[in-house]
Amino acid sequence: MTLEGLQQLLKKYKYDAFLVTHDNLFLGQDIRDDENKIYELCGFSGSAGTLIVFQDRAVLLVDGRYEIQAALEVKPGKTEVHVAGLQKWLQEQNFTGKQIKFAYNPWCHAIQEIERLQNLFPQISFIPAPDALTGSQQSSVEAAAFEHDIEFAGLSRDEKLAQTSRFLQAHKLEGYLFTAADDVSWLLNLRSDALPHTPILRAYALLYADSRIEVFADNLDLLNLHPLKELGKYLKPFRKGSLGLDKHKTPQQIFNLLGDENSFRSYPSPVAELKAVKNPVELAGMTNAHRRDGEALVNFLFWLENNYRRISELDVVEKLHDFRSRQPLFYSESFATIAASGPHGAIVHYQPDLATNRPLDNNSMLLLDSGAQYFDGTTDVTRTIALGQPSPAMIRDFTLVLKAHITLSSTLFPAGTSGAALDAVTRRPLWQEGKNYNHGTGHGVGCFLNVHENPPSVSPRGYDELKPGMITSVEPGCYIENSYGIRIENLAVVEKMPGDGLPLYGFRPLTLVPLDKRLIDKYLLSAEELLWLNNYHQTVWEQLSSRLAPDEKAWLQQACAPL
Q1: Are 48 and 461 in contact (CB under 8 A)?
Q2: What's the mean pLDDT in 464-491?
């Protein structure tokens, strides 16, 4: 559908506007390219945003990560771009007079979201849209499911079902509806090839208190599966208040099927924290996956050192994939590789294509953000790499980002500490120099699942506490529009620190990739920061050196030599 075509339908159905999100019925999950309604309507390819289509205009709302990218991608004159959330933008509008009608796809908005919007904006009627406006809910391409072996999962499906059922029994629930695809994937030890980078099983699951489970999905090759159209039939028998679900993550369409807010009780998914706190087998797998991933990155960095003068961003993407794909247990990338040369680095989530591909410039930097899915773990790492001679400004900004990275990586914190508190601690070295970055400091990471997993979240909106066994990224940055971008990202696992007195937690880095010392002004680092850096590089050397060819080993020895 075109933007103009949708606007004609708005006039036909007498709606003032239509809300379009970057979601399908699996809220907050990755989507296929052919499911991206925002891209289809306005050309914006980012992974988050809201498009408000009026009868005569369109407004794209994005967060700070996509400010530059959105301005470059949308068609001028047809779509306005604003850096704001939906609630904030609506509060700034002067909607007066008659009641305004906003249509929306009830599969693509959570129950809590619609409830909140309707309470905050009584002058707007939020109305479920007919199929003519919403179109299909997900791709019709068939996906194949497969087992995630217990040697990687650590717990059997039956153990997970029994563990989760105890939550239902404790809360006197007869059943719980899971609508988050990664929750269902983890609970059932199943994965699928529905998405290119994220091996989740795109399905809903209804778990009963006695550990029985029913699975609902369309376009999925899996035995004993119910089509989604049968979900309502299975929900109706529950007595009032005997069904549990998370209304912050469950589509409004499920509420429409239930028909009564008293028919369910809302609880956060009991699987979310079980999944986030990795079991010993998952932690071992993540550690091993990062060791292999570090080897692939060192293979690449050695190659890059000798070839950057004659290659482009797309060459970087292809070569890094080649090195990773040689590693045992490799499945796919965990997201499309960000290989940003020079000024492209300032576009936080830039991904090269044939239209934007540019050569690597001498005397500049390459921002390389990439990751992989291995059957035993998921990786995500960002390195900013000097190409030739970096400028003094590049060195200073990189060192400030490094100080922020070390600040969080070396912080000890008590139980109950939220991600928001840790986010503020991390930004201090940059704030003191009048700098900041428009994205969170860290996100949770799944085990052969989503590369972005909640909880935890180290961000201004990170309200959950960080607990031992959780894995988060540590990725402060600095972005200078039209010049360069800098980001340093490791994954780290939260661990309980030894010692008497107040129990404290800290971070153990999982990522094993050297930092570019050509971009570090060691005189800006404190003695403690320098010690952390040298210890980190010593760990990288000890873990990777025996896995490398002689010339790569010599390169790594120099890259990890103490400052």
Answers
A1: no
A2: 97
Contacts of 498 (CB under 8 A, 6+ apart): none
**CA nearest neighbour of 28 among 332, 462, 453:** 453
Measured over the CA atoms of residue 129, residue 131, residue 132 and residue 138, the dihedral's sign is: positive
Angle between helices 550-559 and 527-544 (to 10 degrees): 170
Question: How distant, in Å, are the alpha carbons of 104, 175, 289, 433, 468 from that of 252?
Answer: 10, 19, 38, 45, 34
On whether the CB atoms of residues 533 and 542 are closer than 8 A, the answer is no
Per-residue pLDDT tens digits for 224-241: 999 999 999 999 999 888
For residue 382, give the nearest of 429, 443, 330, 427 by alpha carbon: 443
- Report which of 195, 245, 253 is spatially closest to residue 220, judged by C-alpha positions: 195
Q: Measured in whole angstroms, how far is the alpha carbon of residue 377 from the centre of its chain?
A: 15
The amino acid present at 293, given as its one-letter code, is D
Q: What tokens were used for 524?
A: 């800006």
Q: Exposed (0-12), middle (13-18) or buried (19+): which is 340, by Cβ within 10 Å?
A: buried
pLDDT digits 0-9 by tens, 341-372? 999 999 999 999 999 999 999 999 999 999 99
pLDDT at 78: 87
Residue with tokens 């201004």: 460
Closest CA to 254 of 124, 111, 374, 74: 111
User: If residue 13 lies in a helix (H) or strand (E), which one and from where to where?
Assistant: helix 3-13
Helices (H), 259-333: 270-276, 280-307, 313-325
Q: Which of 188, 192, 198 is nearest to 219 (CA)?
A: 192
Residues recorded for the chain? 563
Residues whose CB is less than 8 angstroms from the CB of residue 181 and which lie 6 or more positions away in sequence, other chains included:
26, 29, 200, 201, 202, 203
d(CA 446, CA 187): 13
| Rounded Cα gap, residues 395 and 382, in angstroms | 17
